[in-house]
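#struct-pred
JK: can someone run the complex with flavin-adenine dinucleotide? inputs below
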Amino acid sequence: MKRIIDFSSYSSIKVGPKVEVEMIEEVDKSFDEKFFLVGGANNLLLSPSPPPLAKLSKEFDYIKLEGDTLVIGGATPTGKVLSFCKRNDLGGFEFLAKLPGTVGGAVRMNAGVKEYEIKDILLWVKSAEGIKEARELNLEYRKTNISTIVYEAGFKVQKGFNHSLLKKLLSLRSNQPTQPSAGSVFKNPPNDFAGRLIEEVGLKGKRFGNMAFSHQHANFLVNLGGGSFAEAITLIELAKKRVYEKFGVKLEEEVIIL
Ligand SMILES: Cc1cc2nc3c(=O)[nH]c(=O)nc-3n(C[C@H](O)[C@H](O)[C@H](O)COP(=O)(O)OP(=O)(O)OC[C@H]3O[C@@H](n4cnc5c(N)ncnc54)[C@H](O)[C@@H]3O)c2cc1C
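RT: done, structure tokens with the ligand placed:
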């Protein structure tokens, strides 16, 4: 089944074309070769002509508690997992608060906040090739070697939802811009912060067309309304160039450009 998705409204940064997306309803290896898989599009920047896209359908939106393991479908929204954990008094997933997306996307990105990351709780993932243990996936800072669709993942659970940790993590979000963005545009280089470097080269708040590096947090590329892919890329390239010239640091995109 196919669906038309308008990425200028679906993606969190509100940039991208209206394109046909294959809706995946069953586990099949051929999808891995044919399509780029889109989750909630919270970490994507789509050009006007992206590669063929697919998305997991509702069949992969579920949460099951099996003994000590939480088994979650790849299309399950992270917010739903957080609510489930609160309701069932389970701990370990508090950092998913305000970390928008699907479980498949979070696993693929090894998403995280501060010292809390998917890698701390992930046990295994299920792809069309079968089950792989977390230790086979080279989970590092915003990086994994996952190159296949994650249909399902298993996580360790512990008793006791940590409400005070949740409160602490939510307060960290207060300095984040509210305009559409894809979260952090660059990964933090070792022992430094991309936001600091962007600020140091004078680009905090820098606007080009309708895209800008946020006044609030320089590592957030925000859409001020009707911003385009070309404008976003211009700012990304400008920041990389200036930071390299001044600090010799090569900024690496966290956002995935398609
Ligand atoms: C306001 C805001 C704040 C954010 N804050 C954070 C933060 O604090 N920490 C953080 O880590 N991220 C943050 N992000 C980025 C984003 O939330 C995460 O990267 C999230 O995990 C993306 O999930 P998604 O489903 O939207 O994936 P997408 O953006 O759709 O895709 C991201 C990658 O995951 C892959 N993918 C998606 N689903 C699957 C699947 N089922 N199987 C295999 N691969 C898949 C895609 O192919 C792509 O490579 C933020 C984003 C926003 C908009």
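RT: quick notes.
The longest strand covers residues 18-24.
Residues 12, 36-44, 56, 74, 99-102, 104-106, 108-109, 111-113, 142, 146, 149-150, 181-183, 256 surround flavin-adenine dinucleotide (CB under 6 Å).
JK: thanks, will look after standup
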